[in-house]
Fold each of these.
Amino acid sequence: MIDADGVLLWVERRGQGPDVLLVSGLGDPAEVWRSQLDGLADRYRITAFDNRGVGRTPLPEGPLSVPGMADDAAALLRALDVPAAHVTGFSGGSFIAQEMALRHPGLVRSLVLMSTMARPDPYFRAVARFWRWMAERAPGERAMLEAFYLWVYTPRAHADGMVDRLVEETLAFAHPQSVEAFQRQLAAFAGHDTLDRLDRIGVPTLVLSGEVDLVAPPRLGRVVADSIPGAAFEVLPGEAHQPFQEVPDVFNSRVDAFWRAVDAGGPGSG
């Protein structure tokens, strides 16, 4: 546990090299980044953490907000004496990463925004309303996970047993997220809006979208990339919401190339 300006955050760190901060999405503890913690620690010092109300980080009183969670991430870097990091955020974590770059620009060396958007559209808001009551009314945790994972993984992952494995791992996890914490985090992400401020981001940025992502389709990622000066935008063919889990070698190779270009200050750095 790390005291980040009065907030106790569970943190996992691995490796040596340039600093990378990984910011998780809705309901995801640090373990969601296992393939990056394992696969990139030979070249980078990787930091992953549990957001408020997720995993081992307690849920505070009062509403959650994306700016507040961005302040937590910034306080964490300061507590770890990290002057600046390559910040990678996934889904709701990409909302946090956007706010972090806007509120604490000196701490952000570059941005990778996976499965992102600048402002939830009516479809996403409808999905969020569905997820809210699904968490309350699903007949059990397994049923909730099986329904939720329909939205975020490819049919391939359902067919090859990956989703079944993830369901079992989540059910066995010693620190499950409460329904209240899930709903409060979901409400914060549904209220995200940086659309009119993204042009203030001045760090190299890579926006990645899964071609068949139902939750954050490429058209929403394209808006983010078009709004950030110099941002690169790429669509991962055949992938859904969580390519960093489904095709980690592809994801790791792409972000590694981007970070190397940023550190070298050459082409491809945004």
Amino acid sequence: MTTASPQVVLSVAERVPTTRRYLMCEPRHFTVEYVINPWMDPSKPVDTDLAIAQWTALKSVYESLGHTVETIEPVPGLPDMVFSANSGTVIDGRVLGARFRAAQRSAEADHYRRWFLEAGYRDVTMPSRINEAEGDFAWTGSLLLAGTGYRTDPAAHAEAQEVLGVPVVSLQLVDPRYYHLDVALVVLSEATATRPAHIAYYPEAFSAGTQRVLARLFPDAIRATEADAACLGLNAVSDGRNVVIAQESTHLITELQANGYTVLPVDISELRKSGGGPKCCTMELRG
């Protein structure tokens, strides 16, 4: 008989933030004019000015925490370019670009590729398999968690391991509302030499086998509720202590605070009309 590991709850003083560098894209051309996920409804009005205001507030939160925010120029005709997380995965300065499943977003990948080259990155690889970057890839500090089921090809996981030189764990998504890993799981603190990674996730977004994998790898994980997931509460950004999260995710916010995190709720209601939240708008530039 085995006994479950006791949950380790750390105080705020023990949660250590680390300074991050992010890439964002202003939603100057944001609208909902096609449907590529269950959140999108072109018949509902979109307030682009409000989306810009919400994005600007999100950017300001990062900067108030001491993080660096780089920006890429938005391109007319690419309304989802604001979701920068989908266009690159950067670990130790190596860049694996994106290849989108939806034709409507395919042009975004090359704009981001050019940004990386102009910013001085030299180790930039564009994928041969469909790969929606940090939409489906989550770095834990020791493992790259890789989602599949709706967007990223399973074969892209092996490609990511080869290009980025990090071990990859494949996770199967089974709920079309949570079509990307980053709307079903968030890395709250990365692994260190003395402490394992800490995550939060919505179990029902994953297959039964994947749920067992996550329980084995992260026994102390915070398990989000359906209500948390439904407002895109898991599409959050954490620096190890400060968690930027959709303000409607009240249960998850309470759990985060109980686990020693400082929570910064934000309004992403307009951006959510395309199925995006703080993480979708935020690519992390590591190394």
Amino acid sequence: MTTQRERTYLMSPPEHFAVEYAINPWMDTTAPVDTELAVKQWEGLRETFVRLGHTVHVLAPEIGLPDMVYAANGAFSVDGVVYGARFKYPQRIPEAAAHRRFYVDHGGWRFVTPSETNEGEGDFAYLPSFLGGTVLAGHGFRTEIAAHAEAQEALGRPVISLRLVDPRFYHLDVALAPLDDANVVYYPGAFSEATRAVLRQLFPDAVLADEEDALAFGLNLVSDGRNVVLNSEATALAAKLRAAGYVPVPVELTELKKGGGSVKCCVAELRP
């Protein structure tokens, strides 16, 4: 029986969203973005979380930071400790300061400024009930593996490193997602052979996505332990999740996909 747990999220509206540069294989600077539609789809996503009983804080967007809508990348928090982001590409570096200000202004958080390159929840996922609280961490394209050790020291939680090998899945959160506090869904082809062996050993009951749904950003999802909010195009994955006892909640994010992200990219979970 799957169990919902109330969550608290941080999101940033796409008022300034545009594809002005290309830093992942999905970004095409010649493809126009309908900003009005992007805002409408984002608002629908926010309302979905509120309707499901969750709390959503909003981080004000800033002019000149078109990727700020991808709020997952700005930091990673566990039990009141925030491990800040240090972006790989210069275009996104100022976003880290905006996220830091949010945690400082809201109080109650211990913020750890990183020395190593990492992109927050883009490459970190937390399973509170797995081995007493475990972090899964991706590397290979954005986050440096040295950041995994730094995060472990900052958060006091064991970190398991997972190597990404397909540039289309440049962040962990487009290749793997927690479904509840101890289990995950992932696309095996995004990972190295050794990492796939580790994942099979750790999560024998994981839900496995096929390539088609992974390429539709189906794994870039947010689950509260029961309700799984995911891209509406990932229909086969939705069926697998339903068969596993979860409740798929499809949403359309066609405009935000143009920047290389979907549901999870737009959402940072706050864990006070």
